[in-house]
Amino acid sequence: MAGYKILLDCDPGLDDALALLLAHGDPNIDLVGVTTVGGNVGLDRTTKNALELREYLRFPTVPVAAGADRPISGETRSAEHVHGTGGLGSVVLPPATLPLSETSAVDFIIETVRALPGAIDLVATGPLTNIALALQKEPAIARWVRSFTIMGGSYTRGNATVAAEFNIYADPEAARIVFAADWQVVMIGLDLTLQAQANSTVINRLRQLGKLADDLIVPLATFYVDPTMPDWDGQAVHDVCAVAYVARPDLFTVQPARVDVETAGEFTTGMTVVDFDPPIANALVATELNVSGFWAYVESVYARVAREHTVPQPSAEVPGSDQPTAGENPAAGHAS
Ligand code: RIB
Ligand code: CA
């Protein structure tokens, strides 16, 4: 019996894909559903990526439901320059054969949390549009969840702008609604996630994991190089931290805080304004990561999945997928 039931709302996305791998691979996590949102790339591609990852990573019975293709207000943002036009960098997966849920992401979130009050750890690793729309439709989800964790925000600098982190910047109005709701938001922001850098030492260890590392994990974790940083030594696996927090909160230092979201600043729209000495806190903000413990945990889970991937999957369990013969590398497509 898994310890945690996670519903992951995401915009895959290089690090969203690595977060999905962790949520699927940790035997202590029951991934109860995946909902998609437009963000890193358009909704059509984040949803395509989620469907293909579901079959490639072999969790075919987990529902995937599509959500919002644009923010509640303002212009639609993208991070294609980071994630590539397809959203998974150079990785090209076999086409999905299993269907998308007919339920919308918003209704899937509401129905899942309502059916299991107090049991669902809701995690969001993309723009918060689906979460905000679900709160507007059914405010009680704020009480029904066991916990709510986001990758998003920052109490220092942003990455989409100097002030705003991408997930918040992509839909500031949604983020304002989410932080104003009747729950505690666990904010895993850039201040924390930039400590989880998949540097060359980590990548060299991941390369030992075999085919899944060659075909998926390493290409996802090494695709983006920041051209403005000459001493760049690897991507931060931002979204992996949000899933890791649910299963291994012992690896994180968090502090109570009040978080407000700027939605109308000329230079600061999308900024999370964090008060660590508030009269009333609405969030727990992560400040420090046990880096060695984090990678030991993540790599152990990835190694477990990689071992399973050395065993050919009987075609009956992954219907319709013309699994390539040994040596073909379905996931390493043409660099985008
Ligand atoms: O700022 C990092 C966040 O924006 C991550 O969730 C990444 O996937 C992008 O969506
Ligand atoms: Ca993301």
Percent range of helical residues:
25-40%
CATH superfamily (homologous) name? Ribonucleoside hydrolase-like
> Could you name the ranges where pLDDT drops below 50 across 5 or more consecutive residues?
316-336
Small molecules (ligands, ions, cofactors) in the structure: alpha-D-ribofuranose, calcium ion
Name the beta content range.
Answer: 15-25%
Number of strands: 9
Assigned CATH class: Alpha Beta
Please tally the helical runs, counting DSSP H or I stretches of 4 or more residues.
13
How many structural domains are formed by the residues? 1
* Coarse structural class: alpha/beta
Using the alpha-carbon principal axes, give the shape.
globular
CATH architecture: Alpha-Beta Complex
Describe the model:
This protein is of the alpha/beta class. The chain has one domain: Alpha-Beta Complex (Inosine-uridine Nucleoside N-ribohydrolase, Chain A), CATH 3.90.245.10. It is 35% helix and 16% strand. It is built from 13 helices and 9 strands. It has a 9-stranded mixed sheet, with helices on both faces. Helix 1 (14-25) runs parallel beside helix 12, helix 4 (105-115) crosses helix 5 and helix 5 packs across helix 8 (172-180). It is globular. The protein starts with a strand and ends in a 28-residue tail after the last helix. Residues 316-336 have low confidence and may be disordered. It binds alpha-D-ribofuranose (RIB) and calcium ion. Residues 10-11, 13, 15-16, 39-40, 125-126, 239 line the site of calcium ion.
